[in-house]
């Protein structure tokens, strides 16, 4: 796994651990998420939205299994894939969303020295 791949994977890994303090530094202050008709503006607001989303699944469904994977299409971007397998009442559905991320770099820093992500979540 390349250093670029490891850097891109660190964000969803921190979210999977529900370590929101570790996830926050990856987001640019002006980051925005587009969730269907809802837009969340600002890194702090985005991070604050995660615990509520994590609590809803187990309350509404019998089982929710989340995964993530990273695709590196270029030297300064990545696509994070999030398939969630949801089971309820004997039925199973796989919901997939993805984040397109760009990282901000200063000077000639290599991509592995990612400082912030500008992310957009898409259903």
Q: Tags for this entry?
A:
123 residues; alpha+beta; Nuclear Transport Factor 2, Chain: A; 3 helices
Compact summary:
The chain is an alpha+beta fold. The protein contains three helices and seven strands.
Descriptive overview:
29% of the residues lie in helices and 41% in strands. With 123 residues, the protein is an alpha+beta fold. It has a single domain, classed as Roll (Nuclear Transport Factor 2, Chain: A). The strands form 2 sheets. Strands 3, 4, 5, 6 and 7 form a 5-stranded antiparallel beta sheet that branches. Strands 1-2 form a two-stranded antiparallel sheet. Strand 4 and strand 5 form a beta hairpin. The longest helix is centred in the middle third of the chain and has 18 residues. It is globular.
**Low-confidence parts, pLDDT < 50 over ≥5 residues?**
106-123
| Rg from Cα | 15 Å
**What's the total number of strands?**
7
- How far apart are the termini? 27 Å
Secondary structure tally, helices: 3
Blueprint of the fold:
Elements: H1 3-16, H2 20-23, E1 32-35, E2 38-41, H3 43-60, E3 63-66, E4 69-74, E5 77-88, E6 91-104, E7 116-122
Antiparallel strand pairs: 1-2, 3-5, 4-5, 5-6, 6-7
């Amino acid at each position: 796994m390349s250093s670029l791949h490891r850097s891109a994977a660190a964000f969803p890994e921190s979210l999977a651990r529900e370590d929101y303090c570790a996830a926050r530094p990856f987001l640019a202050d002006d980051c925005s998420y587009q969730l269907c008709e809802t837009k969340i503006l600002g890194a702090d607001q985005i991070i604050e939205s995660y615990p509520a989303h994590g609590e809803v699944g187990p309350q509404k469904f019998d089982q929710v299994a989340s995964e993530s994977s990273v695709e590196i299409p270029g030297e300064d971007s990545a696509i994070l894939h999030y398939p969630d397998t949801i089971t309820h009442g004997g039925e199973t559905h796989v919901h997939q969303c993805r984040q397109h991320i760009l990282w901000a770099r200063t000077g000639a820093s290599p991509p592995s020295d990612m400082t912030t992500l500008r992310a957009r979540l898409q259903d």
